[in-house]
Design a protein that fits this description.
The complex is a heterodimer of chains A (120) and B (362).
Chain A: E1 3-8, E2 17-22, E3 25-32, E4 35-40, E5 54-62, E6 71-81, E7 88-90, E8 106-112, E9 115-119
Antiparallel strand pairs in A: 1-9, 2-3, 3-4, 4-8, 5-6, 6-7, 8-9
Chain B: E1 9-15, H1 19-22, H2 30-36, H3 65-74, H4 82-89, E2 93-98, H5 113-129, E3 136-141, H6 147-157, E4 163-169, H7 183-191, E5 196-199, H8 216-237, H9 240-243, E6 249-252, H10 258-273, H11 284-288, E7 292-294, H12 304-313, E8 320-321, H13 335-338, H14 345-360
Parallel strand pairs in B: 1-2, 2-3, 3-4, 4-5, 5-6, 6-7, 7-8
Helix pairs in contact in B: 5-6, 6-7
Classes of the chains: A mainly beta (120), B alpha/beta (362).
The complex binds FE2/S2 (inorganic) cluster.
Residues 43, 45-48, 50, 82, 84-87 of chain A line the site of FE2/S2 (inorganic) cluster.
């Protein structure tokens, strides 16, 4: 494991993302409301640029009663959707929402002296 | 034990009642309507029997001489015929399902006939046909068009020893069976520990997806299959097994090769569109592996290892129920299973009777 410097924190403000090449790997780094996430930009499905995809919340549903329409709502987990075919991954853990045996590598992001590092 | 060295339970044979046998079980004014309606073909009385392309017997090629003989001895298709059918097939117990109730799906309007037929048939079967001591059982056909009435029927008869399931005809219900409209039926079935059997049927297959097929082989190959495919898709994606986790679900009469197709196709799309099935907590195939399937009409490829792979893909012989479909044109005798070299003795016994015991308690 090595800490690789990415950029100055000011270069990745909230709501922004950056795709970088590190040791031959394409990696996406995200700032979501001040929390940083990093994940492989190579989708485990067909290699699509997953980190360019939409970030949203996991869609959940509750069975609220016999004969009633299921109640859909968004849960707290952030998810990243691959733009190629829609596979969705928990942004924090990298686990595929539909199959826990599939996951996207995720990396820890740290800050030292106002510089963002990724541990790879 | 009869012909075979195994216990054999037939999970799906058909009772070929004439509607004239049911007349006394209809309330008025329907009783009078039935008696007064025209035509020798009693099946036309209620006007629900499907007219299919071609001829089920391939224009006389498929014959049931033994069945004709049985009917001659019993004076038609009467309850007395059943021991002969059981002896002919070599089965120790039999689940007889009405021939005509499989046509329910043709009833689309605000029409009382589905409920009337379901109740009359069930009462007739309980009164004249089922005999658990002799291994003769039936299922209550469920009028899915009227969920409240279907629940009433379940509550009324599911304590009867002779009623071992509730049956849905899968050809053409609108909306399909995963819809919340049917929740009360599943709730009642689960509460009464009554398995729900989704049974492909002839009613409506000619119009299924697109009309215009010419030959019966086309409508039968596709219709029976697509009816079950459409319902299993709806059930799984709408999360019926999540809503009613103790409900036993059985599919009948589409063979077995379609099952892994649906498992893999559903899984592949689920990984891409999981947010459209938010009640699911596991992949669609895993729900399907909790369901049960009648084997008939069993596809037997030249290379039997393919069939073995299919059985392994769906979770093994624990999922399979021997079903004859007798006397229908494509019935499978128990030898469809006993002859299979790819099954162990235990697996044969499981399919022939063990799974039926687990599902139906018989
Ligand atoms: S490549 Fe990412 S979903 Fe297909």
């Amino acid at each position: 494991m090595t800490q690789v410097p990415i950029c100055d924190v000011t270069e990745l403000p909230p709501g922004e993302r950056k795709i970088v090449e590190l040791e031959g790997k394409s990696i996406g780094i995200f700032n979501i409301d001040g929390t940083y996430y990093a994940a492989s930009n190579t989708c485990p499905h067909r290699g699509g640029p997953v980190c360019t995809g939409r970030i949203g919340h996991e869609l959940l549903a509750d069975f609220v009663g016999v004969g009633l329409r299921v109640k859909e709502h968004f849960g707290p987990n952030l998810v990243l959707a691959c733009p190629w075919h829609g596979w969705e991954f928990n942004l924090e853990t990298g686990v595929h929402l539909g199959d826990s045996r599939i996951s996207l590598p995720v990396y820890e992001v740290t800050i030292h002296d106002k510089t963002l590092f990724i541990e790879i | 034990m009869g012909k075979y060295k195994y216990r054999v339970v037939d999970s799906d044979a058909h009772y070929m009642e004439g509607l004239d046998q049911l007349v006394d079980y209809f309330p008025e004014p329907w009783k009078s309507r039935m008696i007064g309606s025209s035509g020798k073909d009693k099946a036309s009385i209620a006007g629900i029997y499907p007219i299919s392309t071609g001829d089920r017997s391939v224009f006389g090629r498929i014959q049931r001489d033994e069945f004709t003989e049985m009917q001659r001895n019993a004076g038609g298709f009467t309850p007395e015929i059943i021991p002969d059918v059981m002896e002919f097939l070599g089965v120790d117990a039999i689940n007889m399902l009405s021939q005509k109730m499989l046509t329910f799906s043709r009833i689309k309007g605000d029409d009382p006939r589905a409920t009337l037929l379901a109740n009359a048939y069930t009462d007739y079967m309980l009164d004249k046909v089922v005999n658990p001591d002799e291994g003769i059982y039936t299922m209550a056909p469920l009028p899915f068009q009227e969920p409240k009435e279907a629940v009433e029927l379940i509550d009324r008869v599911s304590h009867e020893k002779g009623i071992i399931g509730g049956c849905f005809a899968t050809a053409g219900p609108e909306p399909p069976f995963g819809n919340r409209k049917y929740d009360p039926i599943y709730e009642a079935a689960e509460a009464n520990n009554l398995p729900i059997v989704f049974h492909a049927g002839g009613g409506g297959i000619d119009e299924f997806v697109n009309a215009g097929y010419e030959k019966f082989i086309e409508t039968h190959v596709l219709g029976f299959l697509m009816a079950n495919q459409s319902q299993i898709t709806s059930l799984v994606i709408q999360g019926i097994p999540e809503k009613f986790p103790n409900l036993k679900i059985v599919f009948q009469e589409s063979g077995v090769f379609w099952i892994p197709l649906m498992m893999h196709r559903l899984d592949t799309e689920y990984l891409k569109r999981q947010s459209e099935a938010p009640l699911l907590t596991k992949k669609p195939s895993e729900y399907i592996k909790d369901m049960y399937f009648g084997i008939q009409p069993l596809e037997v490829p030249e290379d039997l290892s393919y069939l073995r792979q299919v059985i392994d893909m769906i979770g093994g012989t624990d999922r399979l129920l021997y079903a004859s479909d007798y006397p229908h044109w494509d019935y499978d005798p128990p030898s469809a299973i006993t002859d299979l070299s790819i099954l162990s003795e235990d697996e044969k016994q499981r399919v022939l009777a063990g799974t039926a015991h687990e599902v139906f308690g018989i």
